[in-house]
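pinned: reference chain
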Amino acid sequence: MPAERKAESVCRCDAIAATKRFPRGYRLTRKDQFDHVLSNRTVHLRCGCFRVFATENHQKGARLGLIVGKRQLKRAVDRNRVKRALRETFRINRSRLPAMDIVVQLTETPSTTTVTAQAMTMWPRLVSATGTENDQQSL
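pinned: its structure tokens
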């Protein structure tokens, strides 16, 4: 009996996780995509330990690329933690962002408590810097 309950709860979690994913279409995945944003940026701003570059895209919504280098965070576990926090805040705020390709670069070593807070303040600043707000409730 307890094994059946465990199996049910796992399936329920999988269903919830499937709706809250960060699919490949929301990411910048190739070098030429990063190069395009960095060379043709229309928005450039600093927010705490992050530098944000953005340019308009012709997709349905915002896409994210991350640059977290070894110079700022030596340990891979720390780099992955920062990337995970940035992806999660982007996923939460994506519906408010205009259709842009966004590259976020870590420029200095952050403290562990400020990464999420700085990332959460970064997205509204990006929207105000672009001067437009996109409402993608259907996505």
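why pinned: Confidence is low (pLDDT under 50) at residues 135-139. The beta strands are 43-47, 50-56, 63-67, 100-106.
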